[in-house]
Design a protein that fits this description.
Blueprint: H1 2-32, E1 35-41, E2 46-51, E3 56-62, E4 74-81, E5 88-94, H2 95-110, E6 128-134, E7 139-147, E8 152-157, E9 163-168, E10 173-178, E11 183-189, E12 198-203, E13 209-214, E14 219-224, E15 229-234, E16 239-244, E17 250-255, E18 260-265, E19 271-275, E20 283-288, E21 294-301, E22 308-316, E23 321-327, E24 332-337, E25 343-348, E26 353-358, E27 363-369, E28 374-381
């Protein structure tokens, strides 16, 4: 009887150790990983962390502000790893504010008169934030209040990681944030005939210029980061995201309504277009390869009256030509290419997963389930 009792105690101890190890494995895996992919799971209100090695989610970072009396939930729209690898930045919109403003903007585009006042009775109370994460621990280290009802879209960092830029689609502003003090040190206002609706943006390799997709103005805003003033490059349609080739020669923009990718010669601001196949639904995010030869573009559709797409386009930048169509998940949105150019990772908004594409063969080789409505995506490597 005594032996049996001791065995049960020992068995319980072993069981507890096994359970504890199982529960801690994702955390330990996240801390020990040399490469990680960060995914903004917007409707889940969190950042999912993927291991490229195991092709699985190894951590989930809840963006809810537990120190807030209202326990405010935040929707993660975009995520960006700093170039020095020391931090991960997220645009986080207070959930009630974001849902109301997003609904208003979509309805206004579809029915501009009938819904002109939609959402005006909803009062924004919580500040939209830029959230900073330590990639070594995957813990939130800073919350930077920017303002209410902004719809913070994308965030990027200068090549030296000294400043972050975040766009407000509602206010037509770009905020410059000091990454040492975590303070907003400047604001650029896009002054156009209509609300410019700045969304995606990228910074030139020399750190002097940001190229901003101005959805409402159908242009690229060329932002001088010293003076915080804009020049405007007209486009054929509505841009959503931009990209810069590694050599700095070309600025790229996905043009949703024209179903194309704009290619801007940064030396003279001349524009060419790479057209997508006739059955394209509308491109969202894009990402150039590190050799500056190709850009990978997610054909999301699923907006402005378009059905959801399921393709990733590979574009030859120099030739301005789509050279490959790669099937992925439903409504592909965010795109990032691994530093060695071997794989492209694509967030699929409607199938709630991430496609892993082997660039050498141009095929999806894995699909990883993540939180609801995955948007932005960024790749981290331990330095």
């Amino acid at each position: 009887m005594k032996r049996k009792y001791l065995w049960l105690i020992g068995g319980t101890s072993v069981l507890l150790v096994v359970v504890a190890a199982f529960l801690l494995f994702p955390v330990m895996g996240a801390k020990n990983a040399n490469d990680k992919v960060y995914v903004a799971a917007e409707d889940a209100g969190r950042i999912d962390v993927i291991s490229p090695k195991s092709r699985s989610v190894i951590a989930k970072i809840d963006l809810a502000n537990k120190e807030d009396a209202d326990d405010t939930m935040y929707m993660a729209h975009n995520v960006q790893v700093a170039p020095d690898g020391k931090s991960v930045w997220v645009t986080a919109n207070a959930m009630a504010n974001h849902t109301a403003s997003l609904k208003t903007r979509i309805l206004n585009k579809l029915f501009p008169t009938a819904y002109a006042d939609e959402g005006h009775d909803e009062v924004a109370t919580s500040s939209d934030q830029v959230v900073v994460i330590d990639p070594l621990t995957d813990k939130i280290t800073r919350r930077i209040d920017i303002g209410t009802d902004l719809h913070l879209a994308h965030v990027v960092l200068t090549p030296d990681s000294k400043f972050a830029l975040a766009t407000s689609q509602n206010k037509a502003e770009v905020y410059k944030i000091d990454t040492e003090t975590f303070k907003v040190v400047g604001t650029a206002k896009a002054k156009t005939k209509t609300n410019a609706e700045p969304h995606g943006l990228r910074i030139s390799p020399d750190g002097k210029t940001a190229y901003v997709a101005l959805m409402g103005d159908k242009s690229i805003g060329k932002l001088n980061l010293s003076t915080l003033t804009f020049k405007y490059i007209p486009l054929n349609g509505t841009p959503v995201q931009t990209g810069i080739t590694a050599d700095g020669k070309y600025a790229l923009a996905s043009v949703f309504t024209d179903k194309s990718m704009a290619i801007v010669d940064t030396a003279n601001d001349s524009v060419r277009y790479a057209l997508f196949p006739s059955d394209a639904k509308g491109p969202l995010q894009l990402y150039p390869s590190s050799d500056a030869r190709y850009a990978y573009v997610a054909d999301q559709g699923n907006d402005f009256g378009q059905p959801a797409g399921n393709s990733l386009y590979k574009v030859d930048v120099q030739q301005a030509k789509t050279v490959q169509t790669i099937p992925v998940g439903t409504a592909p949105h965010g795109v990032v290419v691994s530093p060695d150019d071997r794989y492209t990772y694509v967030t699929n908004m409607e199938s709630d997963d991430v496609s892993v594409v082997d660039n050498s063969v141009g095929k999806e080789v894995a699909r990883i389930k993540v939180g609801k409505k995955p948007n932005g995506i960024s790749y981290w490597t331990k330095q």
